[in-house]
Amino acid sequence: MQPKKVRLNREEKSLQLVYLDGEYTLPAELLRVYSPSAEVRGHGTGEGELVHGKLNVGIDTVEAAGRYALKIAFDDGHDTGIYTWGYLRELCEQREELWQSYLQRLERAGRGRDPDESAVKFVG
User: Fold this and answer.
1) Is the CB of residue 99 less than 8 Å from the CB of residue 24?
2) pTM of this structure
3) Residue 49: is it exposed, middle or buried by C-beta count within 10 angstroms (0-12/13-18/19+)?
4) Which of the chain's termini has less CB crowding within 10 Å, N or C?
5) What 3 state SS string does 36-63 have?
6) Is 7 helix (H, G, I), strand (E, B) or coil?
7) Whose CA is closest to 94, among 30, 43, 41, 35?
8) What's residue 117's pLDDT?
């Protein structure tokens, strides 16, 4: 289902999607770590690449990709994901579950959201 409106909020680093049945806000970080690009999703089955350190990522541009999707360019240079209307709606409806899953994957991998976080854990 295509939204009625799509608004980019650069200051809040988010994308707002307005549908007939409600409004959703997707943070840039969530959009980036769940990018539908082959770079992130991988070329086969499974969870794909664990993207980390994107706490401060923003969105540079949003443009239509035909009549079926959006192409989102992030300020970290990533711009290869084509977000179909169906996939965006899925992200909206499953935002909390996807976010919790992402945080758990980060924890299991010993990674963080902050790009300035030390990769080395010091034992004191």
Assistant:
1) no
2) 0.89
3) middle
4) C
5) CCHHHHCCCCCCCCCCCCCCCCCEEEEE
6) strand
7) 30
8) 73
What is the structure's pLDDT at 118?
55
- The backbone torsions φ and ψ at residue 25, rounded to the nearest 5 degrees and listed phi first, read -120, 125
pLDDT in tens, 73-106: 999 999 999 999 999 999 999 999 999 999 999 9
Phi, then psi, of 41 in degrees rounded to 5: -80, -20
Q: Which two tokens stand for residue 74?
A: 């992030």
- Please say if the pLDDT value at position 49 is more than 80: yes
70: part of which helix (H) or strand (E)? strand 69-74
Partner residues linked to 116 by β-bridges: none
Asked whether residue 21 carries a pLDDT value surpassing 60, the answer given is: yes
d(CA 78, CA 123): 35
Q: Name residues whose C-beta falls within 8 Å of residue 27's C-beta, 6 or more positions apart in sequence.
A: 13, 14
- Both tokens of 64, joined, read 């239509």
